[in-house]
Amino acid sequence: MERRKRLNISRILGCNLEEPTIVIYCHLCGVSFNIARSRRVDEPFTAAWDYTGNHLGADDEILWEDCAEKGCSYAVLPGNNEQDDDLVNDPDYLPREETMHEPYEYVSDYESTDDKMLEEPEEDTTEENDEDNIENQWYSDWLSSFPPPEEASGEPIWTLDTAPKNHIILPVPENGEVPESSVWEPVEHIAGPDCSEVNAYSGRKISLEEMRGCRTAQCLIHKGSCGRWQPDGLEQDWERSGDFFLSGLCDGMPSRDMGGPTVFPPRGGIDGPRVENIVWDNYEDPTVYSIPFHPWCFDIYSRQAKCHFNHLNLNGLMKWRNTESTFEDFHEFPRWGEVMCAQEQFWSHNAGCEFLVANPLYIPKLPSILLAAVKDNNDFSPQNGAFDLHQTTERDAMLLDLMQCSTDPLLALPREIRLMIVKSLGSRDIANLRLASRAFQQLPVSVWYRLIREEMPWLWEAWDESECVHTPSLWTAVTADEVEMIYKIREHQIKVVTEEYQTGELDPNVIDEMVRWPPAVPHQIKLPRAKTNWYEVYTEIKRNWGELKGLKNRMRIWEDVEEIIGRIKKYQT
């Protein structure tokens, strides 16, 4: 996997790198939290939202004539004048039967009972997969036990059943004449296969499941900013003993001129942290400003910090931020060109850059690729040959005949020497060597373990258990809207219960039993080194790279964090 050149890409693409000063980005990866999405025609309206998190309508600047040529559609949605039911203040509210909901699409292993009845029987998966399926099923069922919050904005917690549609979707006519959008009859633009609108990423190019968490923001806060920090039952070990703690979550990030974010839950007593990429006042201690990031970016930082420092080194992270705290420092940080081209007042959702908002931790297609390479048969060994030389094509046979007729001095080398030669080569050189010499036609599977570790250091599923002891936090497995909904329901239930019972009569754990916080994070895959066909892992990742958007984003964030780690080391010397 070739490393991307930074900065130069933006010059090649002709991007404007001047950054408006009102936008706050993830401090670790440089991507906005205010990500928008347009839906596919077969998705419900909750699958589309704009940069504010509200439903995505038709932008006034859309050229409908161009949309007609690109296969776009439009929908006229009914206005909503009815007073929505209040989920928080009426937890006993039950939705009408025709609006019953189904789990959100991002629960990758979820299938409805009806779907299973209609599908062909599938082959049995591993016991490990079955356990994950059960956990995901429990979580989706648990989410579905709550009625849909009609007024929630941002990433949907689930999508409503597509059956009771009260609008129609039509292709944009050739003349580009569509009804004028209004409050009473809003018009929605639905991207076609060739749409290049930059106001939202197209649902045709990236799924809800892949984008899960793209709008979720969290902050690292110094305990000195909150007075006296108290544990809340959600804290991690480093939060108990260290100088920093994580804030609650928020969906999207208000611009600097709109005030700070509101987070849920208000951990450390702070529901509105002071968030900044840039320290504008030289007379103020920069530590009072929290560091904003995606929970998934902080997870990737945590892994690398443990590898380099044996701990999170949050003092080092804060020192780096405080040292490079000017406008120029932040915007001169070397990032991928795709990021720098999108950093405008409103994030530019450029076609082909959808991977920038793909979840790098929970990647839909990756588990099946990795687990398929694990071999349970006793005769498998990493020293086995990676190739089936009995299945040669006609072209391969001709090449073999030519090599047999020639004098190949490498054939005389002992196997140990040949492997030493291969050990010093990269994947492309190995491929060329195999074409040039019969001596290297067969190579052990273990060669590709080395290539994975060197070319894909971010594939932590291939790490040994002893290299980095790490479990993702629960914040990586939930979205901000999920947490806000649960928090508000818990607060209401606490109020109701405390009004019914006198102090001392109520079990303090009753609320945890009534409304639980989200369950533990999904099972983490660890590939057994001695039982994994590393050639299959390597080639399948390469073959499916275009569909593994989250893995590409993981590589990008990993490289950014590598640069940050290097700067932390520089400022600590």
Kindly describe this structure:
The protein has 573 residues and is mostly helical. Helices cover 33% and strands 5% of the residues. The protein has helices at 8-13, 64-69, 113-118, 127-144, 208-211, 237-241, 295-309, 314-323, 327-331, 337-342, 366-372, 394-405, 415-423, 427-436, 446-455, 480-500, 510-514, 534-543, 549-572; strands spanning 37-38, 73-76, 169-171, 187-190, 201-202, 216-222, 244-246, 250-251, 291-293. The strands form three sheets. Strands 6, 7, 8 and 9 form a four-stranded antiparallel sheet that branches.
Distance between the termini: 32 Å
Average pLDDT for all residues: 81
**What gross morphology would you assign?**
globular
Strand count, sense and barrel status of the largest sheet are:
4 strands, antiparallel
Rg, alpha carbons:
27 Å
> How many runs of DSSP E, i.e. beta strands?
9
- Low-pLDDT parts are 8-14, 81-89, 91-122, 160-164
Strand content range: 5-15%
InterPro entries: F-box-like_dom_sf, F-box_dom
Domain F-box: 407-451
Biased composition (Acidic residues): 120-133
Protein name: F-box domain-containing protein
